[in-house]
Amino acid sequence: MEDRETLPNRNAWKVGFTPQAEIWNGRLAMLGFVVALGIQLVSSDGVLGILGL
What we know:
The chain has two helices and no strands. With 53 residues, it is mainly α.
């Protein structure tokens, strides 16, 4: 087992096709889904209906 100091920081903000960027992409996608679901539950229209699309 490796020391914690030698492991890469999984929460680092890195640009490009890195594991850290994919973790942040997934987190932000989950957040967007929850926000869209909340908008759907609170209003009678969905996100696209509110935007007029």
